[in-house]
Amino acid sequence: MFYNIHFVNVRYVNVSPFSPPRNFVGGEDGFTVLLYVLPPLLLFGAGLAVCRYRDVADAAEGAVTGALVLPGYLVLSVGGAFLFEVTVGDASGAPALMPAIVLAGLLYPVVFGAAGGAVAAATTDKRSVLS
């Protein structure tokens, strides 16, 4: 489910060659499509929180600071891509590796963490003053 809400499909091994990769969010048998908004909202909030904690007032610096959520998210996304596998008999299913790393591990935290950081910096009460 974590990878599906990042648009990462499940790939199958030892299943009919005509079985396409599958996403369990949305569609006829899937969960609600509202789950797709969870990662962006949580990463936006994390970027905002990191930026507020570091007391950043410049929007560009805020975007960089917000993107600091990347390392932790990347480690967990890559680790999970190797650990999460479902096996039934000879067949197994796991997240597609490259999309799990690129989409879930890199793209989502950089884009949404940076956006949260930039918004936090732009809406802070402190403004940097040039001497």
What does this structure look like?
The protein has four helices and three strands, in the order βαααββα. The chain is mainly alpha-helical and 131 residues long. Strands 1-3-2 form a three-stranded antiparallel β-sheet. β2 and β3 form a beta hairpin. The longest helix is centred in the C-terminal third of the chain and has 26 residues. The mean pLDDT is 85.
Strand content: 5-15%
> What radius of gyration results from the CA coordinates?
18 Å
Mean pLDDT: 85
Q: Please state the overall shape, judged from the principal axes of the Cα atoms.
A: elongated
Number of domains: 1
Distance between the termini: 51 Å
Strand order of the largest sheet: 1-3-2
Count of runs of 4 or more consecutive helical residues: 4
The arrangement of helices and strands along the chain is EHHHEEH
Structural class: mainly alpha
Number of strands: 3
Q: Helical content, roughly? A: 40-55%
Extract low-pLDDT stretches.
Answer: none
Question: Tell me about the biggest sheet?
Answer: 3 strands, antiparallel
